[in-house]
Amino acid sequence: AEHRAVLKLMERVLGPEHPGTLTSRNNLASALGAQGKSAEAEAEGRAVIKLRERVLGPEHPGMLISRNNLAKALYAQGKHAEAEAEFRAVLKLRERVLGPEHPDTLISRNNLAMALYAQDKYAEAEAEFQAVFKIRERVLGPEHPDTLMSRNDRAKALHDQGMSAEARVEFRAVLQIRERVLGPEHPETLRSCYNLARSLRRQGKLEEAGELARRAAEGGRKVLGTNHPNTKGYEKLYQELTVKK
Predict the structure, then answer these.
(1) How do residues 203-226 score in pLDDT, each as one tens digit?
(2) Alpha-carbon distance 110 to 151, whole Å?
(3) CA 157 to CA 177: how far, in whole Å?
(4) Please, is 33 exposed, middle or buried when counting C-beta atoms within 10 Å of its C-beta (0-12, 13-18, 19+)?
(5) How high does pLDDT run on average in the chain?
(6) Which H, E and C letters describe 170-215, residue by residue?
(7) 200 and 209 Cβ atoms separated by less than 8 Å
(8) Which end of the chain is more exposed for a tag (fewer CB within 10 A), N or C?
């Protein structure tokens, strides 16, 4: 509501193509996306991109932010192939304009990997996650949240390729660091418990898997609430493991 009000004033005072007006319109698109209104976010994003490309040029940082947001809106609607194409385009431009190790470039590369993963292109996704992880590990450090996210995502891609032993090693390493850095009940730590539990179940290590799933479920109820989708997923896994046990 605030973004709409500001946008209306800026359009009247500055004009519809002023850079400040376009920033406000981009902010509105982001707010729509954050509410899950992905189709509206996509429509706003496309409109902003068309204007920004003409006013600012195709390689302007603001233009690339808008294209990245559009790709995220496409991804959120399940248009993963379209999102992949847009993420690739943004990545190519950011690599040239910002350099291959700029934080925004790495975000684009990680987003591309997510789009590949969503299309079951696990080997390609793993390669991208690994590349981002290695750069982030060197630039940000091994315990930075973004580094751990990339390492965790790579482990998921390994898991879904059937490489359970290697995935388990990575999931366990991420869990240990998150426990120490974030604490035992942080949502990302609980997610790591869940991921490791799934990997252990695939290898038939049901006792340890059950304990981790229990921890994730109990932590989810306490930290996230009983109705949170993650909590429900953790409880489902724990129930399945309890029945099997």
Answers:
(1) 889 999 999 999 999 999 999 999
(2) 11
(3) 20
(4) buried
(5) 93
(6) HHHHHHHHHHHHHCCCCHHHHHHHHHHHHHHHHCCCHHHHHHHHHH
(7) yes
(8) N
Find where tokens 């192939």 sit: 81
Query: Three-state SS for 17?
Result: coil
Rounded to an integer, the average pLDDT of 119-143 is 94
DSSP string, 28-75: HHHHHHHTT-HHHHHHHHHHHHHHHHHHH-TT-HHHHHHHHHHHHHHH
pLDDT in tens, 143-155: 999 999 999 999 9
Q: How far apart are CA 237 and CA 217, in angstroms?
A: 9
- In the three-class reduction of DSSP (H, G, I as helix; E, B as strand; rest coil), residue 169 is classed as helix
Q: What is the DSSP letter of 77?
A: T
Is the pLDDT confidence value at 240 over 70? yes
pLDDT(45) > 90? no
Q: What are the CA-CA distances from residue 219 to residues 124, 153, 168, 184, 243 (Å)?
A: 33, 21, 21, 9, 20
**Residue 120 gets which letter from DSSP?**
T
Nearest alpha carbon to residue 212 among 229, 196, 189: 196
Q: Is the pLDDT of residue 62 over 90?
A: no
Residue 36 pLDDT > 90, yes or no? Answer: no
CB atoms under 10 Å from CB of 119, counted, come to 14
> If you average pLDDT over residues 51-60, what whole number do you get?
90
* Residues 6+ positions from 54 with CB-CB distance below 8 Å: 17
From CA 72, how far away is CA 217, in angstroms rounded?
29
Cα torsion 20, 24, 25, 29: sign: positive
